[in-house]
Backbone:
């Protein structure tokens, strides 16, 4: 971005150019901003900040024995699955990549707002930034999808705001 204009873009192929793309871990940044806009109460020793920084302390071997595939995908209640995990560390003590934290944050966002995550994001974040065609599936195990230009625009706007 330069002077509010996209100055370069590259696409691997036409299919990618024409549709929104999975932004996987960037979803956590979007959730962080949305959760930060709430006045959500803290529960027990695990805080919203712990979930946002993936330092909740859960035994979560996502990149170890689970080989990048958390078994929460087979659970009928993902939030319960996450909180049923044993604590390996005190909350806030150590970061451990945990995609379950995003699932819990999504549930918190939806419970606190009474809205689907995508509806809240559209109303309070995406539409004000001119971001259209965001896809955030009902099944929160699928990542948020945005066009690359919007990811860049989002980062650019947040940098300008000092966020």
Residues:
């Amino acid at each position: 971005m330069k002077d509010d204009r996209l100055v370069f873009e590259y696409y691997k192929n036409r299919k990618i150019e024409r549709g929104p793309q999975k932004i996987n871990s960037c979803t956590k940044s979007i959730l962080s901003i949305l959760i930060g806009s709430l006045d959500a109460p803290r529960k027990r020793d695990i805080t919203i900040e712990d979930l946002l920084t993936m330092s909740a302390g859960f035994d979560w071997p996502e990149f170890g024995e689970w080989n990048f595939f958390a078994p929460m995908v087979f659970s009928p209640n993902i939030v319960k699955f996450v909180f049923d995990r044993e604590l390996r560390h005190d909350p806030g003590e150590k970061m451990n990549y945990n995609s379950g934290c995003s699932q819990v944050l999504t549930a918190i966002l939806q419970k606190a707002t009474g809205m689907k995550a995508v509806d809240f994001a559209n109303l309070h974040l995406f539409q004000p930034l001119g971001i259209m065609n965001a896809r955030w599936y009902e099944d929160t195990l699928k990542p948020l999808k945005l066009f690359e230009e919007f990811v860049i625009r989002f980062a650019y706007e947040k940098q300008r705001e000092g966020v």
About this structure: The first strand starts at residue 21 and ends at 22. The longest helix spans residues 99-113. Residues 39-43 have pLDDT under 50 and may be disordered. The helical segments are 14-18, 26-36, 48-52, 78-84, 99-113, 117-126, 148-161.
